[in-house]
Design a protein that fits this description.
Largest sheet: 6 strands, antiparallel
Distance between the termini: 42 Å
Structural class: alpha+beta
Radius of gyration: 50 Å
Number of strands: 35
Number of helices: 13
Shape: elongated
């Protein structure tokens, strides 16, 4: 059936096949141009991949000696993370510190008694205080859940509430401060105070707060008044002065009472003063004289011999920091701990239960025996920290208190467990109380340094593998790369030997190999670590001494002996840093080192207008030229195909006409023959 000719549908001579055969020959130059474009685009992709590998290597090298290099990274290592932890920045200095956490900062968290699920909170204006902050809102009345949700919405990140299912069918209301520290006590005012009493969250107690009065009428001078000065609420006791401040009425010094005040000590300047001079001696009147007849005769002056002058010795300097003591009704006195010299007023707080032993406290004495130091105190008070204002929680989950830690024996108080102003660049977190000092070490981040070196070596090896594949037509190169996946092997197989004649790429590869094997200057006296191989990084560091021939060692790949590298990082860190980047002339600009050399070698290839971009630009130009040629050839081929179709169409028409004429002649001949026979 395929040979059946249908006029108008199928060509008698299969001209379409003939034209296609002729056009396939005509398209050969166009197909060659397209294949050339495909090849050029592949080459452009290869160069771009090489550029990405070089950029990765350059970035890894720059990170090892730039301003943000890992050698300046610091980490904080705590001997007990459950007691104290810390984080360090680059500004932190290496060192070892010892901390004891006596108390962690907490916030007030008060719990009510179990309340029935049907309990409703009355409508009213509820006011809470957290330190100096006040949170107040109107509540229209409702369930405990609605009241807790209202507190959480209006708490301003300072106040919160929750319900705890203590028993089946009942819940306890927990109201908590979100701010830690003794000065951030949780307070209740108005309707909120009434709710606290109603729910059993708090109870009333006698307020026995004592404010120690600093007035002229109450002070008892134990020295000359000229050594004591009262300026408003600040009492200053100068060097050599002493004064007594009464506690009225007397108070039983027992737990949980505390005495608190602000103190400031000021050192006086060391002045040499005038040199002592001998005493002037007795004042003797004139000896007198007698006159007669215009003649005056003077008496001999009185002679008073004085003893030899021996200047007195200067008074001895006295430094006595124990300047305060508690006075009890039995006449006994207990000194408060020694003060410290400070540049500003510092709050001091002492528990009377540890000092008074239950005796009746009657006065606070200030005795300044120093010769070169003044003392000023203000805001002295005695109070019960568990019941400020006569309000005491019945079920405190936690009470507001400051964090108290000692650093190298110095006691420090903060209202938060996160402290960032003790050691520059270090943030300390107090987590738990300890009875023994915990060591905190600030040291270089060796793990980050090691990872940066490993990253550099990895980028180096991937670039070296890429260049080996492109410049050599040997499948063994791909087989040696055991870390490749099957897809990666297939991709590299297509690139094998693509740039085997490119001298620039081979030259760059050789330069990198020389950079990795050459020595670099360091400032160490012995200059031990001047080769990369000496820190456990080299072409055969893991097989050194095993003997035998391994062609992979000649490809330029680097290996890492982690044990050697770890040991070097522990003992020779400054020299390792200089191995990668070193300022040899002291101008604060790195001018030597492996990372510096790699960055300089890579820059001309990947910078703007560099070798890779020029290569890609040249290939783009050639692709554009070939595409313009293809466009021209496509127009020519289209015209040629149209011409052939016209010519073969005309041939088909002529042949059809000839067939029609032949048929007419045959018919006429048959008619003539038939007529003759008749």
């Amino acid at each position: 059936m395929s040979d059946v000719y249908v006029p108008g549908i199928k060509s008698r001579f299969d001209t379409d096949t003939i034209i296609e055969s002729l056009m396939s020959v005509e398209r050969l130059p166009r197909d060659r141009a397209q294949r050339n474009i495909d090849q050029l685009e592949n080459q452009k992709g290869y160069w771009q991949e090489v550029g990405r590998r070089i950029s990765s290597l350059r970035d890894g090298a720059r990170s090892l000696y730039s301003f943000q290099n890992p050698f300046t990274e610091r980490i904080a290592q705590s001997a007990d993370e459950q007691v104290i932890s810390a984080s360090a920045t680059r500004e932190a200095s290496e060192g070892e510190y010892h901390f004891t956490v006596k108390q962690i900062a907490q916030a007030d968290r008060f719990l009510s008694r179990p309340l029935d699920d049907s309990f409703r909170v009355d409508a009213g204006t509820y006011t809470f205080t957290v330190g100096d902050h006040e949170i107040s809102f109107d509540f229209r009345g409702g369930t405990l859940r609605e009241f807790a949700d209202t507190i959480n919405r209006r708490g301003q990140d300072k106040l919160g509430a929750s319900l705890i299912a203590v028993e089946r069918g009942s819940r306890a209301l927990l109201i908590e401060s979100k701010l830690t520290g003794a000065q951030n006590r949780l307070g209740f005012t108005g309707d909120s105070e009434r709710l606290a009493y109603t729910t059993g969250m708090a109870e009333r107690v006698d307020d026995s707060r004592r404010d120690l009065p600093f007035t002229e009428n109450t002070l008892g001078y134990l020295s000359s008044p000229q050594y004591v000065n009262l300026d408003g609420s600040t009492l200053s006791v100068y060097a050599g002065g002493a004064v007594s401040v009464p506690v009225t009425p007397g108070l039983r010094a027992d737990a949980p009472w505390v005495i608190q005040f602000e103190a400031l000590t000021g050192l006086l300047p060391e002045e040499a003063g005038a040199e002592p001079v001998p005493p002037p001696g007795p004042d003797i009147p004139p000896a007198g004289s007698v006159s007669y007849g215009g003649l005056t005769i003077e008496n001999d002056p009185v002679s008073t011999p004085l003893p030899a002058w021996n200047p007195p010795s200067p008074p001895p300097r006295v430094d006595d920091m124990v300047m305060l003591r508690l006075v009890f009704s039995d006449g006994s006195r207990v000194p408060l701990p020694a003060l410290r010299d400070t540049a500003s007023f510092t709050t001091l707080r002492y528990e009377l239960g540890d000092l008074g032993g239950g005796r009746n406290l009657t006065a606070l004495e200030i005795v300044n025996n120093n010769t070169h130091r003044d003392l000023s105190i203000r805001g002295a008070q005695i109070f019960n920290p568990e019941a400020p204002g006569g309000f005491r929680p019945r079920n405190p989950v936690s009470t507001a208190q400051d964090a108290i830690i000692t650093m190298e024996g110095i006691e420090i108080k903060r209202d938060t467990n996160t402290i960032d102003d003790l050691i520059p660049g270090v943030t300390i977190n107090a987590r738990g109380v300890s009875s023994r000092p915990v060591t905190l070490e600030i040291e270089p981040d060796l793990e980050e340094i090691k990872n940066s070196i490993i990253t550099l070596v990895g980028n180096y090896n991937r670039l070296m593998a890429e260049m080996n594949v492109l410049t050599r037509n040997d499948s063994v190169i791909i087989e040696e790369l055991s870390y490749l996946s099957d897809d990666e092997r297939e991709v590299l197989s297509e690139r094998l030997g693509a740039f085997s004649g490119d001298s620039i790429l081979n030259q760059f590869k050789s330069s990198l190999q020389r950079a990795a094997s050459m020595p670099y200057l360091t400032s160490g006296e012995e200059q031990d670590y001047i080769l990369l191989a000496q820190i456990g990084v080299g072409t055969d560091v893991r097989r050194a001494g095993t003997g035998g021939y391994d062609p992979a060692r000649l490809r330029g790949y680097l290996e890492i002996d982690e044990k050697v590298l770890d040991a070097a990082l522990e003992t020779k860190l400054p020299m390792i840093r200089q191995l990668f980047g070193y300022d040899t002339d002291g101008d604060l600009i790195v001018d030597s080192g492996l990372a510096y050399t790699i960055e300089n070698l890579s820059r001309p290839y990947v910078e703007s207008g560099g070798f890779i971009s020029l290569k890609a630009g040249t290939i783009d130009s050639r692709i554009s030229q070939d595409r313009r040629r293809i466009e021209t050839m496509d127009r020519q081929l289209a015209a040629r195909e149209a011409q052939l179709k016209l010519q073969y169409g005309e041939m088909e028409g002529a042949y059809s006409r000839m067939e029609q004429l032949s048929s007419s002649l045959d018919s006429l001949s048959r008619q003539t023959t038939t007529g003759s026979n008749r």
